Automatic annotation (TrEMBL):
<dbReference type="InterPro" id="IPR000120">
    <property type="entry name" value="Amidase"/>
</dbReference>
<protein>
    <submittedName>
        <fullName>Amidase</fullName>
    </submittedName>
</protein>
<dbReference type="InterPro" id="IPR023631">
    <property type="entry name" value="Amidase_dom"/>
</dbReference>
<dbReference type="GO" id="GO:0003824">
    <property type="term" value="F:catalytic activity"/>
</dbReference>
<dbReference type="Pfam" id="PF01425">
    <property type="entry name" value="Amidase"/>
</dbReference>
<feature type="domain" description="Amidase">
    <location>
        <begin position="49"/>
        <end position="474"/>
    </location>
</feature>
<dbReference type="InterPro" id="IPR036928">
    <property type="entry name" value="AS_sf"/>
</dbReference>
<comment type="similarity">
    <text>Belongs to the amidase family.</text>
</comment>
Amino acid sequence: MTAGSLHELGAVEALRAFRSGELSPVELFDASVARIAAVDAADSEGEGAINAVVQVLEGARGAAEEAERRYAAGVDEPLGRGGTALLGLPVATKEKHGLAGEPLSQGLVALRDERAEADHPVIERIRAAGGIVHARTSSPEFSCATVTHSRLWGVTRNPWNRALSPGGSSGGAGAALAAGYAPLATASDIAGSTRIPAAFNGVVGYKAPYGRVPGLPPLSADWYRGDGPMARTVADTALLAGVMSGMHPADHGTVPGEGSLPIEYPDAAGWLAGKRIALSVRLGDYPVHSDVQAAIRRTAAVLAGAGAIVEEVELPWASGRIRDITMAHFGKILGPAMAELTAGMTELSDYTERFISDAHAAGERMSLVESLAGEARMQAELAAAMDGFDVLLAPVNAVDGLVADASYLDGITVPSPDQAGGEVRLDHYWQAHMTVPFNVNNRCPVLSVPVGIAGNGLPIGMQIVGHPYAESSVFHAGAALESLQPWPLLAPLG
């Protein structure tokens, strides 16, 4: 391998190269930092900089030097396990995952001088496993949008098409992976904030079951939320998920899991034989773009051709009703928390003000008991649809992309899936994403994997949904698809 191609390496691949002596952690660290310097602010075509990284921690090079010494002395632990699970790997972390003593603004101008008092639990675990946080990535203010721009950090753009957004809220993480800034990244997901950018950037994102990955109280008690991993391959995503997961004394909601996730998938496609897979292209009435529908159906056919039994299922879900239930939920927890934090702030982005207002109004219209009843119905409906199946397949996004600097305050117009040349107007742009139903069903693991490219040049993502806490099923299904239908590992930036 050459210095110019080191940014293309995956995490498991790099770990093997470290152990064989073919590669030094210092070489990979330097290549990752150099890639950010060369690409992130570049705008040679006048299309706008990617702008995914808000802080480079070049002082972390000392950790890479220490990892180099540890490999030279010999590493005996199994690959990807224990205190050397991530030894020497650069990891890009979402800025909301605080590092002790470093800025913790969450994209808010008024908090730009705030410093984290301690490492976030996922940072703590990454460092304990030998991972090296070398870059921190952008998000919208308070991670409350599915685009990534803020008054503090400006606009983050998709490396596949810079006119379009990388998605949000973990948009910087998705763009960083697609641009080759790191083999691993951290993300978070309360309504799709991991899966949406994973899909739009052509990488893998994982929404773990609620409680598997520790968060910070008090908002860690919100049963929609969860922190998680992103990477460019299924194995790399499983690697970071394994490091991040498990019970933690800071988060009373954490739970034990079913065991270690595999990071190697020999005969991955063989897992499919006889597996029963449910397919729901529209999850009820979501108006899904024709390019997205075609990619999902093509992928389902590939899985069927490899021996899986694929059947379409119906879900009685309406995107407007889902919006009402979930916004009422946010009106009881996240909305008030944001309102309290931002009280008196004058430099908020328009989408932040709108989210606080919309959540408050929705919370006033629907009581907590009513929203819980709505959630329970959705959970029962998903359980019924998945009965007898191993996993469920569905699109991540109903749309093929979002404009990079737009806020969509007045909703979004999308092509009609039922009428050629027709359009559908959605009251809230969150209805353009098919992720939040699985935050309502938040004990279900969901893996987002790439399945194609839309006409606008952006990747298309598919959700693989498992039964509650059945984590290995979604990774095995993802690995099988990856072996049958490999995807590009980087955006075509050169």
